Amino acid sequence: MVLQSIRDRLTGVLAFVILGLLVIPFAFVGVNEYFSSGSLNQVALVNDEEITFDQFNQSFLNYRRQRQQQLGAAFDPEAFDGLIARLEHLDRMIDEELLRQAAVALGYDVDNTLLAEQIRTIPAFQVDGVFNSDVYQARLLAEGLTISQFEQQLRQAAIMETLPRGILESSFATPLEAERLIGLLQQQRGFDAVTVPADPASIDTEFSDDEIAGWFADNQQRFMTEEQLTIEYLELNADRFPPAEAPDEAVLQASYEAQKGRFLVPEQREVSHILIEVPATASSTELEQGRLEAEVLSQRAKAGEDFATLAMDNSEDIGSASAGGSLGLLEQGIMPEAFEAAVYDLTLADPISEPIQTGFGWHVILLTGIEPASGMDFEAAREVLLEEAQQEQAERQFLEFADRLVDIVYEDPTTLEAASLDLELDIQTEGPFTRAGGFGVSAEPAVLSAAFSDLVLEQGSASDLIELSPTRAVVLRVLEHEPVRAQTLDEVRDQVLALLRQERAEALARAQADSMLARVAAGEELAAVAEEAGLIVVNVAAARRQTMSPDPVAVQNVFKLPRPAEDSPGYHVVDAANGSALIILRSVTDGEVDEASGFGSAQAGQMMGTVVGSVESNALIQQLREAASVSIFEDRLGVSR
Fold first, then answer.
1. Cα(589)–Cα(362) distance, integer angstroms
2. How many angstroms separate the Cα of 549 from the Cα of each of 449, 538, 545, 558?
């Protein structure tokens, strides 16, 4: 069940492939044998199991890409680039590692055969519904993963999900709990609202230098730069090599002959048969008796009796007798030699054989159809063979260049100049970019992992060869490193002034809403008070939690307010999306069970059971946390608060 759930999720994640693939949204840890790391590369230590920066960065980038695809234009890069977002993601990874450790301690594991079968059923790894190993490797390579890494991640995910899934599947809710849930979820609230907008443009106050400096000092953590790199790199790309020479015709012809089965579908013959079984140890008398019986059946069929009926009544081939003796379409090389020879001697004009002997006994064969050979002859297949031969030659050339590049850089890993001159490759630069990635090669997870590794960043060495695809690879080194630092007031003065005006505008909007509330609570008419301020009253008769008008934030806050007294409304000021809102809460009506609406007691019970299971799962994680030894190294995440 756990693997099936993961496969189902991959079906959807790898639809955005994969994954932007494998945008596989797993955060898996504890797989130390697959990621080389030293103690300085740890971002967390969970009961002596390390979470390395490489593991964290790969997981965080996948999560960030997934959220970007989900949110589209609403995606805010800044919300996912700071330390808070990274710490929250690391926190989830720690929880998952604790769950994995607990499951392993209880003896949970995943069968290799089941794991392989689940991988084969993932649509992103299939061609025309069939698993394709080349596609599998290419998809993983595009995400910077090896097969062993991915399979270990999938295994760890299945193990990690075992305990919480077991809790969720065994949780339930009582009918009373389900009824209460419906009451809350389907609840409706009636209220009047006046939204008081915050308008920073209307703030013409001149802030003093002391005010600006004081506010900046109190909020300096909001103005930290991110760690950034600028790199130089050499790129090998087979697409940029000169076109490979066309191979000789003899080479193409030999390739065609070696792969003829790939291009040609041989002639197939549709046949039925009647089998009179004779054991291999039968005497000559028994053999002759079987032949005579088959001879009689052959003559009856030739005389016009229905062959299918004869087969159903007389054939001793259990597998085909019930189908009238039909064996379907056959091609050469499948059946015993004597049987096959007889099949290909028959014609549609003379379709019934004499008795034919094989190791099974005596057969009477009926030819019912001929599918002629089809496919591509050499001339038709020539272009395909030529393209493949040139591609193979390009890949060989690519590997030769890659080996040469590695050898040269290994001799002096402090420079790319020698390799650039020897291989006639331009040294390219990119950056600055953060650990979240940039554009071009710096958007590749494998490049980011290498660029921020100890070898490249701390030791100043060129990277190992980074394979981005079977025909594309890079080697890089760091040109400039900008560590995290606090920005000066001069650098962010305009931002500070904008935030000061926004805060002042929000405070004024809140004060105005509070003043209006006091007047209405004292007996003045809401409409008159609003009109005096140039604002409008919105009457909402029955808002639900999903209601967007008059303001989605205000509506959410309305549902946090206490119920009004039976004989009088409630007067409140709540935050709105931009400013504040004066709310007169008049009614609260709990939802009721309505099976016809599609959300009845069964659905509510299932949802409440899930809620209960989630609470219990969180309680388990909390217990594991309290019993665990967890160390977090914030400074190794590359950003500050």
1. 84
2. 46, 9, 11, 12
464 sits in the region (left: phi over 0; alpha: psi -120 to 50; else beta) called beta
* Residue 138 half-sphere exposure toward CB, CA atoms < 13 A: 13
pTM: 0.46
Domain ranges of the chain: 2-173+630-636, 187-225+489-589, 228-244+381-482, 267-372
Q: Exposed, middle or buried, 492 (CB in 10 Å: 0-12/13-18/19+)?
A: middle
**96-119: string of b/e by CB count within 10 Å (b at 16+)?**
bbbbbbbbeeeebebeeeebeebb
**Placement of tokens 């193979």 in the chain:** 392
DSSP secondary structure of 437-506: B-SGGGGSHHHHHHHTSIIIIIT-PPPPPEEEETTEEEEEEEEEEE---BPPHHHHHHHHHHHHHHHHHH
Pick the CATH number of 2-173+630-636 from 3.90.1680.10, 1.10.4030.10, 3.10.450.50, 1.20.120.160: 1.10.4030.10
Residue 17: partners with Cβ closer than 8 Å, 6 or more residues away: 23, 124, 139
Question: pLDDT, tens digit, for every residue of 130-149?
Answer: 888 778 877 777 666 778 77
The first and second tokens of residue 586, run together, are 């008049």
Distance set, CA 489 to CA 209, 223, 483 (Å): 11, 9, 18
Nearest CA to 118 among 148, 158, 146? 158
pLDDT beyond 60 at 546: yes
> 224-236 burial string, b = 16+ CB within 10 Å, else e?
bebbbbbbbbbbb
